[in-house]
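FAQ: What does a multi-protein file look like?

Like this. Sequence, then tokens, then the next protein.
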Amino acid sequence: MDIHHLVTMANQIAEFFRGSNPDRAEAVAATAQHLRSFWDPRMRCEIIARLNEGADVSALNEIARDAFRRLAQDSAAKTVA
């Protein structure tokens, strides 16, 4: 998968939720929920893997980056449980 395309799409989603939710935490939660509900797991895993590897994903805006971190934490919690 083209990581640049995934990052662009994630940023667009995050910008939408930032605009409709002035509260940053709500924007992150809404972005994470959208990604969980509508993205193929392989798409989410591609970005989460890069975040976990410490790869440069600086093109992700802060809302998208925090949403993916939340998804990664949720996934890790399910693995442990």
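And here is the next protein:
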Amino acid sequence: MSRRLDEIEQRKQLLVARANIQRSELSYLARIVDRPFRLADTLLGIGRALRVYPVFTVSSRLLTPKHQLLLWAGRIFAGWEMYRIIRMQWPKRRP
């Protein structure tokens, strides 16, 4: 019986050593593929956000140098606000 237990103990040590080697190899491979998978995950997240919130796509298109509609809209709004302030401060004419 002691011989059988010794064989089992040796087999156990062999399996533990093999598991440690495989764990080490897996850790090494995971470090190699981690960066590309992280990049792919980020890109997929951006794609999902653009699909759920398409206003991001439209607004980013409007901010390109060719289409600066949002920038012009801000300028027009600021001009309108300045006009309103000046108009309220300007003395009113009496008929």
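Q: Is there any per-entry metadata?
A: Some entries carry free-text notes. For the entry above: The two ends are 121 Å apart (CA to CA).
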